[in-house]
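Hi team, as promised in this morning's meeting, here are the two structures we talked about. I've kept the exact order from the run log so nobody has to guess. The first one is mostly here for context; it's the second one we should focus on when we meet again. Sequence first, then the predicted structure tokens.
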Amino acid sequence: MRIHSPAAALSLACGSAAAQEWTGGYVSSYAGALMDPDDSGDTVQFDTNPDGGFGDCVNTAASANAFSLSFCDGAAGDRMPAGGCRENGSGGDYGIRGGDDWLSGNLVFGVLREYGMADCRDAVSAFSTTPPFYTLLRKVDDTLAVRGRIGMTFGDGNNLAYGTAGYARSTVENDFSTSHAVNTFVNNGDSDADGYPLGVGNERRSTDSFSLGVEYLHSRIDDEDYRVRA
């Protein structure tokens, strides 16, 4: 799952450090909007043995591929592919941050910790020739992240352009739905997923204790642990 998040942040410097010189600690809040997840080529993989190896073909009684119809990016709108799939959607992104920065010449080095909530949903559906549909949906609930940033001041010294990258861990809510009314399906529930955020930003310090910034983050969360057994 890849998440793109433009956001605006309000920061308050704390402590007795020279905030106007970008050295010291701070706390901040942020709010933004998420772009839709990257949905290119999503599929459902099968382990028919089960031996832990996914990629098996599910065959009908006539030895034909039961999922030869198609897969689609999103939640199935009908039992057949002609009904299409509902597009994945994303909403808001907001949270709190705390960090420390150090100024060396006109370079600024920093580390921050953040906790965020988001409304990001990603689904994939498989259509069977039998002909039920099967939809797997995942939603990112919250994320903890640690990031570093490095940037350069410019202009009057109160502007900072920077790049940032780090480590993130998200709580992922998983869900399964199907039009198949005969078999019983069990799943392994919600999961935690690791990933990385990286991006760029610009921050403007208006006083010794207040700044306003904008930031664009690209986050990749690798969630590969969800299983559904028939």
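And here is the second protein, the one for discussion:
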Amino acid sequence: MTPMTAKKAGGFRVASLGCLLISMMVGFALSAFANVDAIESDAEKWIELQTRIAEENAKWKAEKELLESSILVLTTEQNSLKESLESNKIASDLYQKNRDRVTSRLEMNGAALGAMIDKMNEYEEKIASIYARLPEPLKKDVASLMKKIPAEIDYEPLSVAARIQSLISVLTSIDQFNNALNLTHQIRENSDGKSINVRVLYWGLSVGYAVDGRGEQAWILRPGESGWTWSAANEMAPDVVDLMNVYEKRESPRLISLPANLN
């Protein structure tokens, strides 16, 4: 090989080597750029992953706090229910004792009430039987009360309390009338069939005296099974007039003799 040829050959090898180096450098550069893209992609994925982790952690923390709060509320409610159940148990036991006591009292009161109703029925029957024997003024006074007393013993139109009140009122009126002198005015037909106004003085439920306005006609009233009977006693008219005047304080008190049966 001549020097010129060797020189050319050497130059070709240098050029080839240079091309190879450039190719390698370009390859390395391209490879480096590719690695950068991969790194950037991985970095973005890592950041995204960390963000999601942070979000999940925050979400989990919030849910944890909510769960803890719910558990606390439920625990408090459970304790409250336990206390309520215990209190209700005590209240239930107390209620049961009170109910048993009240039931016992009701049974005793029921027996007493039954006996009282039997006695009340007996008195109502007696009052109904003597009502016709009462004097007319007293009948008028107790007429409204008698309507509240059942005609039949088994018939109860009113409450027991109302019946007792009516019964007591009737008995009180009868007792007051029986223990006093009672002066009334009544309309009566005379022997001519004319209506006249007469004064009547009842000596309790034993006897009564009546006289007309002129002091000419007089009557003695006595109780009977179907009502009071009027017996003419014109001969006693002056004495009956004196009795009325003394009672009404028109005359001074004095002894006046009149027939009477106070049994």
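Starting points for discussion:
The radius of gyration is 62 Å.
The first strand starts at residue 181 and ends at 189.
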